Amino acid sequence: MRIYCLQKPKLLAMIFQTLCIDLTLLAISEHASAQLSTGWKQHDMNRPLPPTVQPGESHLPTPPPSDAVVLFDGKSLDAWRNSDGGPAKWIVRDGAMEPVNGGGYAYSAQGFEDCQLHIEWASPEVPKGKSQNRGNSGVFLQSQFEVQILDSFDNVTYADGQAASIYGQYPPMANVSRKPGQWQAFDILFRAPKYNDDGTLSSPARLTVMHNGVFVQDNVKPLGPTSWLQHHPYAKRTDTNRPGKLPIGLQDHGNPVRFRNIWVRELPPETIEPPKEAYDPVIVELTESQIEGLLGKFQREGGGNYEVLRKDNKLYFTLGGPLLEMIPHSPTEFGLRYTAGLLEFQRNSAGQAQSLRFEMGGSLSKGQRETP
Length: 372
Ligand code: MG
What we know:
By secondary structure, the chain is mainly β. Helices cover 9% and strands 34% of the residues. The termini are far apart.
């Protein structure tokens, strides 16, 4: 497993030794990050801090829904690995998992792409240190995009490094931190970055984050994998066993931050392509008399009216509201341009439509031509 995140200077040497840093990427990151910026230099103490918001009463733990993958239920670290793929070097104590000194990051054995993540965490009850050295950890989506965990209760640090920041890039919209030792929750909606076949970025990652029930990140697009001092450029990561999917990482920053009740829901793709044959049907040309034979009003069974009318040389069908453009599949069968509906007319021997059937949204209705 290859990890791409850097944190505190005092841990830097250890991280370089214990994690596999892609030196090539680091070498080119300076150039790339010079082109991408939030407008602020990273870790600027002058960047405005978000307002403090007192969260509502806690209802944690939040039970996982039926389709969730439970990564930690308070009992076992079976779903977690260390950076080499071996058993996670964390401990389970009193229903929570926490790093031990020098244990390194914990990574989910399962990889994820687009997902919803619920995670509960608590910084040490007795605060030690200040700024970035107080209750620091982090949850890394796809091992690259850190939602910062920090004891940000009465603890000033740079805005892009406080709890619920997208580390080094985007401060949260509010500081919703609970007191040290109290359980807190992140609910994260993550869209993974997408890449073209040639490895170039197709769409960046996106993160929406709720901290203790308050939205604090709104669909932000990281400039690249998060990091201390400078972020890195996007680069397609591969895991031969899990194409497109990469593990969730929990940071060991040397502070005994505890975790519990971690579950993930895998999300479907944002768009599903419609069936081409249904959306690109045969379109026929109607003769003038075939068009004339459709125009007029039809009494709807059960009340109301339908009408077929011509406007700007197009045929429209209406139920009394919007005009729905008709697409002729044959002289008697029509689809609608923007709505999944089907119209079928019955014509008499003179070609005039006498009745219609209208199927839409799983229901069928019928109409008879109004008598003059
Ligand atoms: Mg951190």
